[in-house]
Structure formats: structure tokens, C-alpha cells
Specification:
homodimer, alpha+beta, 3 strands, 65% helix, 13% strand, DNA-binding
DNA sequence: CATTCATATGATAAAGTTATCATATATACT
DNA sequence: AGTATATATGATAACTTTATCATATGAATG
């Protein structure tokens, strides 16, 4: 399997805005305005990232009056997240202590 | 499950250097020098990212003479990658056409 | 068709990440 | 101990990504 797809896949989920949107839509479909309110994110920030998620096929949308309703590609996304759930506890503590990943110009403040 | 861990997990894999190292160690354990040669990456680049991968618990190391041998936490990592394999084909094409993810300052050159 | 509310888009400054360079530390061998 | 080879580390410049601002487009309704 193609290496680039893998990395893009992980990249899609590693972004806070996108990940929170996915988590939110995990429960139920929502309009852009609702997403903004629930997550307390700016509208254009949300729209830009929804565009990305839709381009990737993770969410889909339909117009409902003036609102555009976004919903999650549940079956596949949930299956992926559920599987990672099984493993992530093992790594959780160490991930959160990794300077490179937590970053903001590498590790601890001096 | 903690949201941050998730994102850090995805972030760890979304980086080219780290992902290639993981792919390489999927087959067999290797020293830093071997990894550098095989991937044609600079030594400090590899060391920095190995440190990250080890901090996260994805790889472990042991000294063997002057060489430090790194190996993959196979059971768990392989299980995760294998599961994603099952789904990624579905998204592959769209991921690779997503301007936000492919980026270099957003999408297509004008 | 003008207005209002909702969403999308382009450009770019700000923030974040990575590779690289210079150098330090580790290990083994003579 | 001195040298050679292997690996690690800190600082930072170069690069990449993101949020934000300004503005455009879409949809509905009087």
C-alpha cells in the first residue's frame, strides 16, 4: 500500500480542529454554525477544515434550507477509531511525555 | 479516551521520517547507521526521530558493540497498521487529491 | 431583487514542525 | 589514555501548516 496515503491519513486526524469535528460528528450530524458553537471555533476555520474532511471522504454534506449539514462516514471511521482505542492506552502516557510530539519548538522550556 | 493522546498518536505516524523508519523496522531490527543508509537520511535526523519513537514506546533499543540496534514494537504496531490497511484503500485517492493535506501553502500553484 | 443569515474561499501573517549544523557523549580497540 | 567509529543532543534556520481576516457566494424570504 502506498506510503503517501498512509501519511496523509494520519495527518488528517492529527489536527486538532479536524479531530474535534470528527469527534463531534461521531454522535450526530450538525450544521457549520452548530459545529462552530459547540467547539467554540471560528466559522472560516471550521469551513476550511470541513472542506478538507469532505475532500478526503471522511464526512459528507447536504443542504437543508440555509444550513449545510455535515455527517460522518460512520461505519469506517468508527471502526478505525475503535481499533486504535484498543492500543492507544498502551502508548498514551508516553505519547504525552514525548517532547518532539508535544513540541512548540522542542520539548521543555528552559 | 483522552483526545490529546489520539492526536499525538496520529502525529507520530504522519511524519515522513518516522513513518519510513517504522516501515523499515517492520521487516527487521537495524542500527542507526543502517537506517540512515537504507533510507538515505542524515544521521542526526534519524537519531532525533528514533528518540521520539522510543519515547512513544513504538520502538526499543539495545547496544550491540558500538552500534545501537532499534526494533519495532511489532505486535501492536503491525496490528494497528494492518487494520488501517483495510480501510485506507477506500480513502486513498481522495486523500491524495486533498489540497489542505498535500498543502505546501494550500493546494494548487497559481 | 434587496436583505439577511449561512457558508465558502483566497491571501497571508502567525504558529508550529523539521532538518541541519556543530558539537557532545558513548563504545570499543590499541 | 588516545583514537576511531557510532550515536545523541541543542540551537536554530528553513520549511510547513494553520488560523484569521476580508470578502465572496448561496439560500431563503419579504
Amino acid at each position: 500500500m502506498n506510503e503517501l496515503s498512509y501519511r496523509l491519513f494520519f495527518k488528517a486526524f492529527s489536527n486538532k480542529t479536524r479531530f474535534e469535528i470528527i469527534r463531534l460528528l461521531r454522535r450526530e450530524q450538525k450544521s457549520v454554525t452548530e459545529i462552530c458553537k459547540d467547539l467554540n471555533f471560528e466559522q472560516s476555520r471550521v469551513s476550511h477544515n470541513l472542506k478538507c474532511l469532505e475532500a478526503c471522504g471522511f464526512v459528507s454534506s447536504k443542504w437543508n434550507g440555509k444550513n449545510k449539514i455535515y455527517s460522518l462516514d460512520k461505519k469506517h471511521i468508527l471502526s478505525i477509531l475503535d481499533n486504535i482505542d484498543k492500543h492507544i492506552e498502551r502508548y498514551s502516557k508516553r505519547l504525552e511525555s514525548c517532547g518532539v510530539l508535544k513540541n512548540k519548538s522542542c520539548g521543555v522550556i528552559k
